[in-house]
Here is the input.
Amino acid sequence: MTITLVKKILKDGSPCAKCADVLEKLESSGYMDRINEVVVADERDPESPGLQLAREHNVNRAPFFVVEREGQPPEIYTVYLKFVREVLEQDTHESDELKEIMKDNPDLDFL
Amino acid sequence: MMEESMTSELLNTVDLDDELQKASPQKVIEFALSEFDNIVVSFSGAEDVVLVHMAHQIRPDIKVFVLDTGRLHAETYRFIERVRDHYGVDIDILSPDPEALREMVRKKGLFSFYRDGHQECCGIRKIGPLRKKLLEVDAWITGQRKDQSPGTRMGIPVIQDDKVFARPGDRLVKFNPLANWSSEQVWDYIRAMGIPYNELHDHGYVSIGCEPCTRPIGPGQHEREGRWWWEEATKKECGLHGANIRK
Here is the structure.
């Protein structure tokens, strides 16, 4: 299994807050060792590797994870705690995961 | 079912979105219903009733669901039943997980959203049941519009791959037929077609959600000001700019 994390650099050159938060969580929980590669989606460069991956997998937000398993199509995770639960097979609290979804998807406010 | 599933896998939602951005909501719904049998309409009990109306015209047995948070206005519950009777559609009323709700309320009380923000409460009362429901379907239709949020980065496509709620290793397609309609256009349509609407709209409510988190607004106020008004407008930066994503 190969795991790629795509993090974003904003147009002003600063890292996105959510990406920094996810990286910090990966580091502090020791999961960073499970990540094979971190690539950058640089909003200043449409051809940056992260934006190429976003185009390839039709993803419109960052951070996200690309999980590749031999003989299977790649899977995309845009919810960090869902990735932790399903790929890293670690326990998460459902309420935390739901809260993360709400925070990252403001369009859901109006359902 | 297999044939429909295979067809959906071939959909290139980015290219299709470019095309469907110019289409009317009715055309978008027609396209969605022609592509998917196992598709459901999300209805909030507000002006998104237009979706129920449009979808019902094309497919009279369209499936509809409502996220019943347990905190909706009595008027909204009455309206949901009115819509069910008017169109004769199957409306699946979804409730929050009782244990998760009990734990949150026991720890934080019934009004924690005024203190901690609405995400946790909405997560349990809306997103949990929504996620469970969407595991059952191949596609869903929402009433989300670009003009609902003042955030300039809120890019709402007409059609998108829903990677948040898709079954593991599977695909879920989300349609937002009203993405490019303004509130005014929605209301022009409701009036022109004589569609039933929530009586709260006659009392100054524009956007309608849970009772404690919804209030009427005055002239010139954005509809977002009628929801979670105690929270500071949130800056969103997780989206990748569309121009960079499109080829």
Observations:
- The interface with chain B takes residues 8, 10, 16-18, 41, 43, 46, 51, 54-55, 58-62, 64, 72-73, 75-79, 86, 94-95, 98-99, 101-111 of chain A (CB under 8 Å).
- Strands of chain A lie at 2-9, 37-42, 64-68, 75-77.
